[in-house]
Design a protein that fits this description.
The chain is mainly α. It is built from two helices and no strands. Helix 1 packs antiparallel against helix 2. The longest helix is centred in the last third of the chain and has 38 residues.
């Protein structure tokens, strides 16, 4: 399953490409913004996963 960050990056790439093809600079900029949001969401998701893994390993160490 694709996470929300990856979806945003893919959507942004497509929107940016469409903007370039049609000469729509606003659409191109929106695509770049969508990609940035997707990267941020992916980074947050990765950080959450690492935090959960660290919490789980800390619990294992306490046993």
């Amino acid at each position: 399953m694709v996470d929300e960050g990856a979806k945003g990056k893919i959507k942004g790439k497509a929107k940016e490409a469409m903007g370039k093809m049609t000469g729509d600079r606003r659409k191109e900029a929106e695509g770049k913004m969508d990609q940035a949001k997707g990267r941020a969401r992916s980074a947050m998701s990765d950080a959450e996963k690492r935090a959960k893994d660290m919490e789980g390993s800390r619990r294992d160490d306490e046993r």
